[in-house]
Amino acid sequence: MGQGLFVTGAGTEIGKTLIAAALVHQLVSRGQAVRVLKPVISGFDPTQPEMSDTGRLLTAAGIEVTDQAIARASPWRFAEPIAPNMAANRAGAPIDLDKVVAHCRAGLSGDGVLVIEGVGGVMAPITDQATVLDWMAALGLPTVLVGGSYLGAISHTLSAAAVLVDRAIPLCGVVVSESADQPVPLAETSAAVVGFLPHIPVIGVPRIPLRPRPWEAVPDLTALVDLPETL
Ligand SMILES: Nc1ncnc2c1ncn2[C@@H]1O[C@H](COP(=O)(O)OP(=O)(O)OP(=O)(O)O)[C@@H](O)[C@H]1O
Ligand SMILES: [Mg+2]
Question: Residue 24 above 70 pLDDT?
Answer without folding.
Answer: yes
